[in-house]
Hints:
The protein is elongated and about 120 Å long. By secondary structure, it is mainly beta. The longest helix has 19 residues, at about 660-675.
Amino acid sequence: MTEVEEGLDAEEIGEVFDNENDNNDHVTYLNDADYFEDDVHEDDDVATFGIEGVDDITANTSVLEAGDYEFEFDVTDSLASDNATLEVRDDDAERNFVNDPYIQQQGDEFNITVELEDTDDTYVTVGDYDDNAYEVGLYVEDTEGDYDEVNITFNTHETNTEDVYDAFEAQQDDAELEVVYALIADDDIIAIGDDDHIQGDVGDLDADEVGSPDSLAEELSDPLVADDYELTTSAALEVDDGEIDFVDRGDTSFINLEPLGSPGDVTTYTAPEDDSMSDLEDFEDATVTATDSVAEDDYLLMELEDAGMTGALAEFGDNDDGVATGLASEGIYVEVEQTDAASNLGDVVWNNSADLEETDVDGEQLEMTLVNGDDYEGEQLLFDIPTDQFGEGEYEWTIEFSDENVYVDDDEDFEIEGEFDIDEREVSLDDVDEVPNVDGAELSGDTTVAPGTEIDMVASASGEFVLTDDPVVADDRTFTGSFDFSDYDAGIEFDVEADEPLGDGEDDFTAELVDGDGPVINVEADAPSSADVGEDVTLDVTVTNTGGAAADDVDIGVVIGGENVDDTNSSIDADESWTNSYEFTSDSEGDIEWSVTADDSEETGVTNFSDEETDDDASDDDATDDDASDDDASDDDASDDDGETDDDGDDDGTPGFGVAVALAALLGAAMLALRKQN
């Protein structure tokens, strides 16, 4: 064997490996003069060993100074060879906690990070039995020696499970973790994982039972409560005075578990149906829009801030649909109820606990997935709630953290509420009469589908052209397509069509190409299609010049309910607009028609005024309709049935009643029948 870097001589190499205590006489340093007639080698930095009965030998680094060593190995009776490197450090190893203290909430999962200096391993003790009735000793080793820090993942939600190991895990691939001992809830039982890690005789521990690795089981009824838990690093553990103590105590710190706080705000989003939503990266890359109006088959996403309980949710990965019943089993309920369902359908409800046997929910199981399970750190909990389970309608949602959750005190549960609408997928074009034959002519519309969706637009004239564009829906759910009509003559009529990707929403209109060098006037007007009697509504008017020249005299006329409310002549520059608004109302039920003209362009519409409150209220069936004035003495007194008015000339042939009384009776019967129908 040759040491080639630091320049050890043969005798020094012999001291490193001829170590009786460590190698148990299986390795013998062979001096040439004593064992060989002829020199095996002439170099004084080469040592020869006899090795018998072992595959591994131990290097005694105590005889070496700090530094890097490289050893070359050659077999004396063959050509086999190999080499190995060894780093010897000063005996001043440090094991320090990083980013401490660790301030977390109950139910959290987080990393306890230990910085290693001049060592590849450490013992870490979590908790102190006297203070917490919870104490666990761990051994962590960086087996490859390539980390300056090791991370111990601690899941505080799993501290009452059937295996202590459930709460602890070494995060790095080349790091190994062992539970050395556990002292939980009962000081008469100490569970030992591996007594090779404890110096001294574990039989001397003050405990009625010193358990085997199989006894590393939970004793807590619930996960760790809110409290401070001490952390300690050490070079080793030992039995001292009947207890497990530290050898070469290193650093100390603590974990401060705070009570679970109230969750933060909830935001609902939508995203286009053709986006992917399988993880947090997809969510961040997609076009997501905060809204409470979602089109059928688009994404409905719900973001809950500051929900905490990262340990409770650690078992759920990206796009995991098990989170629905998982949350319910933890006493966290998500419910959706349709508010505009037909009355005889009763409550139409979806709940994430419907499939659990121990709950009594009269509704459907709510389908939902956790988008960012692998990236959840307590601040942003993202759910994907498929819209195809609901259908078009209006909905209210509730998220309840009930006192069934171990972190919520009795009678202190809290709720978050909100609402959303599921809309039919619709596309509506802003139809115009004239379009300039220019490059970049714009045709626009609006839609209910999610911003970021591509709309398929086609402008076509039989035998002339078929032009397409794929505008993207903007944040305000409008879209604008651009077309090149510069190669086509004025006077050509053409069709414009628009479809959203699923084909459920579409619209079309017919327009005519006009000379783009001159003014091109189009009008757009909008007013509510329905309103209550007496309610003020607004007619918004926009007249746009999409041509290439100013329009000097544009005749604009506005007629509402047959009355001319505006008759204006205006100049509108190219690519400019004229806008105005008009309020109107109606004192009675019925339709109010309106129209707006701008030169040859016209827009018309109807607003229906209704009075639902007076259709079936007390005025329809109160005392004035069926009281004494309808059937009192004035209707059937002597003047109606005396000798003067009941002669042959006035008798209508109705025995016992005059005509007026008969009509009143019929009217009363009709009103009674109407009331029963209502």
